[in-house]
Amino acid sequence: MFTGLIESVGVVRELRRATGSAILTVTAPFVDASYLLGESIAVNGACLTVVAFGGGSFQADVSPETLACTTLAAVKAGQRVNLERALRLGDRLGGHIVSGHVDTVATLLGRRNDGNAQRLTFALDATFNRFLVEKGSVAIDGISLTVNSVEAEAFTVAIIPHTLHHTTLAAMPIGQQVNIETDLIAKYVLRLFPGGRDAASSERPALSLDFLAKHGFL
């Protein structure tokens, strides 16, 4: 589990491909002695397992599923990536609950200044865009952000200066693809009620204001 609060930005040293998988080496500002073999680190929002470390860098296996569902398959040596180590019990949950299980990728469509912030618009397929709600949460390349607006196949977020300066968002060009993890609760709700992607029973009651009131949510 992660919070979506980026600890540091690392630099890709190498992505060594093998048949159906890869090993990713990232230079990171973490002290070597602090690593644990087998620990989880989110790299641009994708949860990876540390299999080796030393010399100011770590290595992680990248599975075929991760290569297929994220932007990690296309990373290049020298590319900057967002890093977050796993949440510890007792830590402050400053962002939102992020699993590190990337749903899909989105594309940066545009950016504009808005006071001290920048508003970024991303194109996202409607299959996944329906999991987003205004003022809800989304993880973009592992960064916990608040959704400002949602359209049929796009959404916007506002980025404050601190986030711009401490993540990869400041230098992100238009057309760049990013990893997206939508809200976990939204996925469960759509699964449990009719109309959801994986609703298992048509006999389940429809989600409505009356249903919520009856069960004490309103």
Report a brief summary of the structure.
By secondary structure, the chain is mainly beta. It has helices at residues 64-69, 126-129, 161-165, 184-192, 209-214; strands at residues 8-18, 21-27, 40-43, 46-54, 57-62, 80-85, 104-114, 117-123, 137-140, 143-150, 154-159, 177-181. It folds into two domains: 8-85, Beta Barrel (Elongation Factor Tu (Ef-tu), domain 3); 104-190, Elongation Factor Tu (Ef-tu), domain 3, CATH 2.40.30.
Report on this model:
This protein has 218 residues and is mainly beta. The protein folds into 2 domains: 8-85, Elongation Factor Tu (Ef-tu), domain 3, CATH 2.40.30; 104-190, Elongation Factor Tu (Ef-tu), domain 3 (Beta Barrel), CATH 2.40.30. Helices cover 14% and strands 39% of the residues. The protein has 5 helices and 12 strands. It has a 6-stranded antiparallel β-barrel with strand order 1-2-5-4-3-6. A hairpin with a 2-residue loop joins strand 3 and strand 4. The longest helix has 9 residues, at 184-192. It is globular, with a radius of gyration of 19 Å.
